[in-house]
Amino acid sequence: MTARKPKAQGEEGLRQSMSWLHTWAGLIFGWVLFAMFLTGSLAFFRPEITRWMQPEIQVQPAPAVQSVEMAQRYLDEHAPDAKRWFITPPSDREPLILLLYQLPKPKPGERGFVRVKLDPATGQAVQGRETRGGDFFYRFHFELETAFPWGRWLASIAGMFMLVAIISGIITHKKIFADFFTFRPGKGGQRAWMDGHNALSVLGLPFHLMITFSGLVLFMVMLMPAGIKAVYDNPRQYTDDVFKSFKVTPPLNQPAPLVRIAPLVEQAQQQWQGRLGRVTVNNPGDAGATVTLTQAAADGVSYGLMAPWMRFDGVTGKLTEGQDELGATARTAGTITGLHLGLFAEPLLRWFYFLVSLAGTGMVATGLVLWIAKRRQKARPQDAREAFSLRLVDGLNAGTIAGVVLGVAVFFLANRLLPADLPGRQLWESRSFFAAWAVSLVYAFLFQRRKWQDLLGIAAAALALVPVVNALTTSRHLGVSLPQGDWVMAGFDLTCLASAVLFAWMSRKAARARRAPARGPARGRTNASAPAATTTAKSAKSATAPTSPAPAAPGAVVYEPRGDTP
Amino acid sequence: MMRYRMAVFSRAAAAILGGYALASAAAACLAVWLPMGRADAVTTALMLSFVVYTCGVIWVFATRSAWRAWIGILLPAALLGGLFLAGLGMGMA
After folding, report:
1. Residues whose CB is less than 8 angstroms from the CB of residue A75 and which lie 6 or more positions away in sequence, other chains included
2. What ipTM score was computed for the predicted complex, to two decimals?
3. Distance (Å, rounded) from C-alpha A407 to C-alpha A462?
4. Which member of A51, A461, A495, B51 has the greatest number of CB atoms within 10 A?
5. B5 falls within a domain
6. Which residues sit opposite A293 in a β-bridge?
7. Is residue B24 part of a domain?
8. For residue B40, is it within any domain?
9. Under a CB-based contact definition with an 8 Å cutoff, are residues A334 and A303 in contact?
């Protein structure tokens, strides 16, 4: 039972203990990690998803200078006594002007920040259907819909387990390069899953390592207070030191008109030779007002959180401070976090981000199924507890892997089907996501044998319905968006269809595996409801995976069975 | 069986809690001693602390016994913590 028998020492012993660690570190948070990976992949398309989810908003972006002028006019009128204004000018990805302002004294129960979207052509507030759009996936990815700060901690702990699982997985590997070209779906069962898991993991290994480590770095101020407390009195001083552009300055409590921001924007863009990312105004209408301009995150890999910035006196418009070049350390940290956020990635690269991130999702999923596949072969028929743990993990696997995907599809369907004036509409959208996931879990435990086949099939049907319902409820369906070259709408619908095909295929494979229990070395255990052959489908999920069905050198790279797992 | 479970539990505790203590000690020590500006030293220390944490976890599960695992975590943690205090005393920060 033990992975660390005293006799197993040296290199082989290390590999065995690392294999044990890989198995358990990966399993414990596997389901959370699957949901995080999938929603994180979707979050790379956050603005595009929001645009699909508000199809009634159709605007063209305008230059930053002009948009900032408009924003200032709007805020002067609607929020003259706000504590802070934030203005995000339109970009190619997000054509609206995004405004955010902080109320001076929010009433109890009222939110302190107000969000407004302006049409850059008219300067008027745009009212779309109430939805969280792509922000839902973005926030779920690191907060798991759990109250601050618990969700962030939970996500970070899951990330730390992921990092350990990746490193121990690498050490476990003897032939990491050869394994990459090994795929033997014909062998069925554990072998096929193992090959699929290896291919997906090794394919995106640099990405998986980067995304896991940088995710922890993004929250390091919260996670490692000891390093800050060692030299600072409180974390606030450190963040003020690092993120100087976010510094909050106190008001002087004397009224004074705010300078026109647009000319400052012109000046800054000239100096940067780049785009404006955000305007922050502290204490507008006060003598102590400041205007801070930050360069667009899309302009540089390291600009995700730490882009060049300039601060102006809010009354005279004089440049008071700024930073064009960050130090080597700040640039390193900026690059690590910037790589995670992927805001710099222009369309082609963003699609690669998305695909390799889906490969990571598939890595987690195949890893979870592999846990079952390995144990099922060795399971002792009389061991009730073993049977229980197999059933538990298998149920969680099916209910989560198919369930989260179903949840995403249902979330999109709810966006189209819920009445536009439903009170708390955006809450119902999120609820539909969790309801679909929960129902999938229940189904997975109720219908042991058919769960994979059915849930994958339902997920496929729901995904296929998304473009259909879009066509029935809006005038921006594939028949219109394709001829118009509206790639945000068309790309979304086509991606849903492609995913539907993939899941339908996996469902069919699962059905076939259920009828014909695993071939090859399996000892004829008929409870093999895990779809053995689905590996093929999972690997195909990362369209770039060169998992040619013909194994490169079957004889040379056969996996020797390791007695690594109980 | 019981003994095996205790050993696994002990190692898990050494990895999760001990590893975090080790990473924190490393972060504090580096923040004080790294020859950089204060903010840069802290940034570097925090980023490296996750590498230390991971290495600590790997050590805990790679070594022969749970006792060795604990010693291999707590000894360096105490050392780094001592270095941090020494640096603080010498006014390095």
Report:
1. A82, A85, A87, A99, A101, A284
2. 0.96
3. 9
4. A51
5. no
6. A279, A310
7. yes
8. yes
9. yes
Domain that holds residue B35: 17-89
- Decide if B58 and A9 are in contact by the 8 Å CB cutoff: no
H helices present in A29-117, as ranges: 30-43, 46-53, 64-78
Q: Collect all residues with Cβ–Cβ distance below 8 Å to A386 and sequence separation of at least 6.
A: A375, A379, A380
Domains held by chain B: number: 1
- Determine which helix (DSSP H) or strand (DSSP E) holds A367, and give its type and residue range: helix A347-378
Cβ distance of B58 and A168 shorter than 8 Å: yes
| Closest CA of chain B from A441, distance in Å | 29
| pLDDT at residue A300, rounded to an integer | 92
* pLDDT of the residue at A527: 37
CA distance to A175, A497, B41, per residue, from A228 (Å) = 41, 48, 10
DSSP B90: T
Contacts of A327 in chain B (CB under 8 A): 37, 40
Query: What single DSSP character describes residue A530?
Result: S
Candidates A221, A261, A212, A226; CA nearest to A86 is: A261
Q: Do B50 and A220 make contact, defined as CB atoms within 8 angstroms?
A: yes
Residue-wise pLDDT for A85-94, tens only, equals 999 999 999 9
Phi, psi of A281 (to 5 degrees): -115, 120
Give the tokens for residue A364. Answer: 């987690």
Token pair for A350? 């963003």
pLDDT in tens, A292-303: 999 999 999 999
Interchain CB distance below 8 Å, A329 and B57: no
Joined together, the tokens standing for residue A126 give 């745009």
Integer CA distances (angstroms), B51 to A167, A212, A245, A402, in order? 11, 12, 29, 34
* Residue B54 lies inside a defined structural domain of this protein: yes
CA A308 to CA A317: how far, in whole Å?
Answer: 18
CA-based max dimension of chain B? 53
Report helix, strand and coil shares of chain A as percent, to nearest 5: 60, 10, 35
CA distance A357 to chain B (A): 22
Query: How far is it, in rounded angstroms, from Cα A134 to Cα A425?
Result: 15
DSSP one-letter code for A447: -
- For tokens 């360069």, what's the residue? A295
Q: Determine contact: B58 vs chain A, CB below 8 A.
A: yes
- Residue B46 near chain A (CB below 8 Å): yes
E strands present in A57-170: 84-88, 97-102, 113-118
Mean pLDDT in chain A?
87
Least trusted range by pLDDT, from A5-9, A68-72, A473-477: A5-9
